[in-house]
Design brief:
By secondary structure, the protein is α+β, with helices and mostly antiparallel strands. The chain contains five helices and twelve strands.
Length: 221
């Protein structure tokens, strides 16, 4: 089921409310704009009207774990060609962020909030150097509904993969997973050394291997 809204503070809030009422696995709430879109680490997600694809999906999985967030990144990447993955699940295009994903637990389910920059022709000054859209990269508008349905289909498929399969696929399809010099939260610097058995990022630093459980990973230029 897809619930369509014109405007909402956050599709994650709407999806959580539906989950509390017993909405089924795969239920989606999509909005034309969000007035309080949520990003990771408490950040807001720029959700201007018309340009982006903003939706949340209810997932009811038998054994959810940290690899679910990786699987969602793989799903969006599979739906949008020529993109890269930055751990844990930022979808990148030409080294700028094209899509972001946030996963929260709610009422016995997981809520996957997904924002994709589709038809924006510009961004606020603070995002101009780090974000992009399909329209900016290709020069023409894209069908948001077609992208939505591709992501839904890929998500329902990918979240059924085993944890080991998800981790292997992520390492294969992300240029950030191994051999990339990065900083984490602007403090810890090292070279990525793959993912561990739970899907967390391993970072080779001057003092040894660090296990990154959470944090903003950025390339060192």
């Amino acid at each position: 089921m897809i619930v369509r809204l014109h405007s909402t503070p956050s599709t994650m809030q709407d999806a959580s409310a539906l989950a509390a009422k017993g909405a089924a696995h795969g239920t989606v709430v999509v909005a034309e704009c969000q007035t309080a879109g949520i990003g990771r680490h408490g950040h807001s997600w720029h959700s201007a009207p018309d340009g982006g694809l903003y939706f949340s999906m209810i997932l009811r999985l038998n054994s959810p774990g940290p690899a679910v967030t990786l699987a969602l990144g793989l799903a969006v990447q599979a739906a949008i060609e020529d993109t890269d993955l930055r751990w844990p699940n930022d979808v990148m295009l030409h080294n700028r962020k094209l899509a972001g994903i946030l996963v929260q637990a709610a009422e016995g389910a997981l809520i996957a909030g997904i924002g994709v920059n589709v038809n924006q022709s510009s961004f606020p000054d603070e995002l101009r150097d780090i974000a992009t859209s399909l329209r900016l990269e290709t020069g023409f508008e894209h069908d948001k509904d077609a992208i939505l349905h591709r992501i839904i289909a890929e998500t329902l498929r990918t979240v059924q993969f085993s944890k080991n399969d998800v981790i292997r696929r992520f390492e294969e399809r992300s240029s950030y997973a191994r051999g990339r010099e990065v900083e984490v939260d602007g403090k810890l610097r090292g070279v990525t050394a793959g993912l561990d058995a739970d899907g967390f990022l391993l970072l080779r630093t001057d003092s040894g291997i660090e296990r990154i459980v959470a944090g903003g990973v950025r390339p060192v230029h």
